[in-house]
């Protein structure tokens, strides 16, 4: 089959592309590389023009204030139109999200409509924020969520603009436009599946694919000093609950001194990020989730002890008895206790790391995951 993957988040579609190619499919990936992360794509619609200098950024912001229009969106649309001939006549087109190019709704709609019209069968992934997920979190969800900072103080709503914007009419309409055209909507993890419990087009969860051939076991067996790593993307700071990790790390550093080494990396391109935690024993991924994020899975594939989602919700949804992840919860005392347990019994870190890699190989291998997607594709004909 000729397959067009639309959009990229954290390497999700790159890994799935690898698996689909191993099954013999012709696969093309179009997107903007997920911004500063710079993931590879076959057809690039993104542009770094407005990030090249202070003046360029000033022009972009000034134009937005004057007109309410994003000049970067216009560049993306222009690059999309230059590539239209390469974006036609695929058997399968799969959108990573209802806003796969990250543009304002009117620009996004132009590109979405073209892709749906000029290709055969469409699929939508529930991955990242979208209308149905944002609506579920604001109206139905019980328990902690990515909206915790707003629950504490509604004035913080501006910190989560990139979630609340999906409740707007334009984003809602684009979501339902793609959903209507799609054969299925496929949730990529527990968090997004929760919002689709009443959605008739929703499938069972297909876990994120990991190209396991890229990653080797990277256990740091020197446990005299425990290396803790945390990556920060300021755009997702509050959504991921990084504030809880920061408070816990401050306590841990005072408690253990030179027995621990803490590394914090901020907004790194993917290739720099993936090498920056090579020597880490523990990786802090995110707190306000019920499943593992993509960065967590890649770290697990390398044998890191990861703090991320791993609650009873996760185990039940994936029909598992256990998961070699430290379930991160929005409770600083709990996080300190869990970190302390590992620091004081460091052999547990190595045990968890080995089990984590085994888990990813068994449940997330890109070829196995591609097989699951392939079945849905074949059923659409």
Q: How would you describe this structure to a colleague?
A:
With 381 residues, this protein is of the alpha/beta class. It folds into 2 domains: 222 residues, Rossmann fold; 151 residues, 3-Layer(aba) Sandwich (Rossmann fold), CATH 3.40.50. Helix content is 44%, strand content 14%. The radius of gyration is 21 Å and the shape is globular.
Compile the SSE list and pairings.
Elements: E1 2-6, H1 12-22, E2 26-31, E3 43-44, H2 54-67, H3 71-82, E4 92-95, H4 105-117, E5 121-126, H5 131-139, H6 148-152, H7 161-164, H8 169-181, E6 182-187, H9 190-194, E7 226-232, H10 242-256, E8 260-266, H11 270-276, E9 282-284, H12 294-301, E10 305-308, H13 312-318, E11 326-327, H14 332-344, H15 347-363, H16 366-379
Parallel strand pairs: 1-2, 1-4, 2-3, 4-5, 5-6, 7-8, 7-9, 9-10, 10-11
Helix pairs in contact: 1-16, 3-4, 4-8, 10-14, 12-15
CATH fold-level assignment of the largest domain: Rossmann fold
Helix content: 40-55%
Sheet bearing the most strands, described? 6 strands, parallel
Mean pLDDT: 93
Please tally the β strands and state the result.
11
What tags apply to this protein structure?
Rossmann fold, 6-stranded parallel β-sheet, 5-stranded parallel β-sheet, 16 helices
Would you kindly provide a brief summary of this structure?
The chain is an alpha/beta fold.
